[in-house]
């Protein structure tokens, strides 16, 4: 092993020395650094600016989840694929940033109102799209073997319900899962008692 270290030290300067630019050995005068002997024309970025892109950029707009969550309104879970007896799930947003949100979820379970505060990090899921900012669909990753989908709605949008396109997208994504309807008008009482 010691022999290999000695050999590496001796061979390294020999391998590196041909890489020095031509000129004097102290590198005080420029040599042939970056010189290319070619007859080809060199394109510059200015020459390339006139070229059109090969593919058309999609004009489809994907909503920003931070804009949906950056509200003082309560956000209700309208539908969910979560296997649970929890109902009337509503989120109160404490703080939103570009990478995460602190929120408290209130829910009704076993005859009582419960709550859980958590920090959620955002990911980009372009398949979850919406036409307006009054609702959004998002996949919740929770520790454990089970993932579920939720269709969420701002409190002010409950009367009209989720947009038709949003419901269609939710149904397409959750088609292999059982959906429970978490929200009913009676859930508004949770706002008066806890949230």
TrEMBL record:
Give the signal peptide range: 1-21
Q: Which UniProt keywords apply?
A: Signal
Name recorded for this polypeptide = Lipocalin
């Amino acid at each position: 092993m010691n022999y290999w270290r000695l050999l590496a030290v001796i061979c390294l300067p020999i391998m590196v020395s041909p890489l020095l630019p031509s000129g004097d050995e102290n590198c005080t005068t420029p040599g042939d650094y970056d010189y290319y002997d070619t007859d080809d024309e060199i394109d510059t970025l200015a020459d390339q600016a006139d070229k059109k892109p090969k593919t058309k950029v999609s004009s489809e707009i994907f909503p920003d989840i931070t804009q949906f969550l950056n509200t003082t309104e309560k956000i209700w879970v309208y539908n969910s694929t979560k296997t649970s007896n929890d109902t009337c799930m509503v989120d109160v947003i404490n703080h939103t940033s570009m990478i995460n949100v602190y929120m408290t979820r209130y829910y009704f379970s076993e005859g009582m109102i419960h709550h859980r505060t958590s920090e959620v990090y955002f990911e980009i899921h372009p398949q979850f799209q919406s036409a307006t900012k009054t609702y959004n669909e998002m996949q919740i990753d929770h520790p454990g073997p089970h993932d579920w989908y939720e269709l969420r709605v701002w409190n002010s949008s409950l009367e009209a319900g989720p947009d038709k396109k949003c419901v269609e997208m939710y149904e397409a994504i959750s088609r292999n899962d059982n959906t429970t309807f978490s929200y009913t008008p009676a859930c508004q009482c949770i706002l008066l008692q806890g949230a």
